[in-house]
Amino acid sequence: MLKDGRLPLSDAVRTAVCIADALGTAHGAGLTHRDIKPSNIIVRPNGQATVVDFGITKGSDERHDITTSGVLIGTPAYMAPECFNGTFDHRSDLYSLGCVLYEMLTGHQPFTGTSWHLINQHLNEQPPPLIKRRLSTPPTLVNLVERLLAKNPDDRPAEAFQVMLALREIDRRYFDQGLPNRGLDRYVRSAVSPRIAAFGAVTHILLADRAPCPLCAPEPGASGAEGCESCQGTGEASAETSHRIRIPPGVKAGQRLRLRGLGWPGRNGGEAGDLFVVVRIEG
C-alpha cells in the first residue's frame, strides 16, 4: 500500500476510513485484529481498502499472547504500548491504525529501529510531530492521529466507528471537490424487551424522513407552493418508512446494530450512509 511513499492527503484519509470501518465491524463481533500494518491493507482499483490477514485475531477478553517462547505476536513497528506488557483490547488496534495513518500521511513510520528500540519508543517516546513532516495536514487530522497514538488506551477514541465518522467529516470538510461523497451515518434508538434481548427476534423500526411534497414539489429541490395543505409551502412532507431488523440473541444494552445504506443520502451521486440502531432494553 505504501510502496511509493506517502499518499495524497485525501487518499490517506479515505483509506483510513475503510480500515476503521473494517475494525469497527470486527470489534463489534468481539474480535481484535492485533496486526494492523500496511502489508495487511489491500487498496482496490476503485480506491476502497480491505483489511486482510485475520490469522492472529482473538477475542478481546484474552490476554495478548507473547508466547512461552518469548516471540511477540504482531509487528513491533505498529504495536500499541500495552501489547508489550501482555494485554490488549480493541483500542490496541486503534493505536496500530494511528501508526499506519501517520505513515500514509508522512511516508515515515512513527518509530524505527530494532525490535527492542521500537518497544522502548512505543512505551516511552513521542513520534516526530506529524505537522512538521507534512505542513499541509489539516489540524483536525493531526489531532486525531495524536489521539490514536496516545500511550494510555483511555486517551484514545473509544471505538473504531467513532474514528470512521471523524475521518469522514475531515474528508467532507477538506477534500470534497464535487466528487461523489458518501452520506452521513444515522443513529436511532430501539427499545426491546429482556426476552428479545436474550433470545433474539426479527422486528420493525419506523424512520421518519423528509421527502419532496408529492402535491406541489414532486422533484427534489423544487420550491413549495404557498398554501399547500400537505407541506405548508415548504416543499417537503414528512414520510415514514418501515424496515425489518434482526435482533441477535444476547444483544446488550447500548450495542449498535448496523443496517447498510439506510443512513442519509450521499452527495454528488455518492452512496447513502449506514443506519445504526442503538439497543435499549426495557421492561
Automatic annotation (TrEMBL):
Residues 1-175 form the Protein kinase domain. Pfam families: DnaJ_C, Pkinase. CDD domains: STKc_PknB_like. Keywords: ATP-binding, Kinase, Nucleotide-binding, Serine/threonine-protein kinase, Transferase. PROSITE patterns: PROTEIN_KINASE_DOM, PROTEIN_KINASE_ST. GO terms for molecular function: ATP binding; protein serine/threonine kinase activity; unfolded protein binding. Its EC number is 2.7.11.1. GO terms for biological process: protein folding. This is non-specific serine/threonine protein kinase. It comes from Streptomyces capillispiralis.
